[in-house]
TrEMBL record:
One of its GO terms (molecular function) is dioxygenase activity. It comes from Cohnella candidum. SUPFAM superfamilies: Glyoxalase/Bleomycin resistance protein/Dihydroxybiphenyl dioxygenase (SSF54593). The keyword Oxidoreductase applies. This is Ring-cleaving dioxygenase. The keyword Oxidoreductase applies. Residues 7-131, 152-269 form the VOC domain.
Amino acid sequence: MTQKTAGIHHITSFVGNPQANVDFYAGVLGLRMVKKTINFDAPDVYHLYFGNEVGSPGTAMTFFPSEGARKGRIGGGQVGYTTFAVPVGTLEFWEERLRKLNVDVHRTVRFGETYLRFKDSDGLQLEIVEREEGRPSQWSFGGVPAEKAIKGFGGAILNSIAPAKTEELLVNVMGLTKIGQEGDLVRYRSYGDLGNVIDMNAAPMGWGAGGAGTVHHIAWRASDDEEHARWRENVIAHGFQATGIVDRQYFNAVYFREAGGILFEIATDAPGFTNDEPFEKLGEKLQLPSWFEPKRDLIEQNLLPIEVRVLDGDQA
C-alpha cells in the first residue's frame, strides 16, 4: 500500500541580509520567529524558522540568510512559488497591507481560487490564498491580528525538469492524489489540511540556479519516527538515493533528490520547537546543538545581530 504524507512540513530557502529576512517574515507577514539557530552544515550562517505560534508542521518557513549572498535564478529543480493560506474573508486585508508596506502585489486566479502574488526582499516568489481548512494561527504581531494571520502553507508550485517523473513520485511514492489540470498547471492534493495543495508546471523547465531568492528544499511530513523509517525504506525501494536519518534537533530528516531535480526532505512532526526553549521564549536566544556549544562565543561573533521588530508602517 502506498504511504501517504499529510503534506508539506516546511520549506527552506536561501536569502541575503538576515535582518531584512526577519523584517519581512515577522514584520510584514506577521509570522512568529520560532527558532534562531545555525545551519548545522555551515555554522557561520543562521537558520531562522518562522511559523504559527509554535511553528507547527505545515507552517514553518525556514531560511539560510547570508549577507552578500549571490542572487539565485528561479527555474527547474525548485519550488517556484510558496503558497500561504489565510482565513476566508481576509484577502483584501492582506492586499491592502502589502501595498501599505510597499510590497508590489497582483491578483491571479487558478483552479477557481484567487491568489495574491508578491516577492520578498530577496525576490523569493510567494502567494497568499484564502482557505477554509487549516487551524487558525494564535499569533498576533505588528499590524496582523490573530484572526487574520497566516495559518500556514496552502501549498506550493513545483518547477520540474521532468514533470512526468515528478508526478509519478508525488502520486506513487508520496501518496498525493492528482485532481486536475488547468492550462499549464497540474494539481495534486494530500489528505492534510495545511500544505496540502501542490501545483506543478506540466511542461519541463530549464534548470534554475541556487542562491538568494530561491528555495533550497521542500520537506514533507512523517507522523513519527516509525513512519519516518518506513518512508526512507520506501524511497530507496523506488530507486532514489536517500541519506541516512539526520537529527535536526526539532525533527529528524531524510533527504533525496527526485528525478525532476527538486530536493525533497521527509521530516518528523516531533519533537518540535519547544524541544530546547519554552513556548514563551521561542526564537529569542540563539539555540545551538550540544556539539556547537563550546564554540558559542565564536559563532555569535560571526553572526550579524538581528531583532524581531514592529515596522515603522505599523507604528503610524
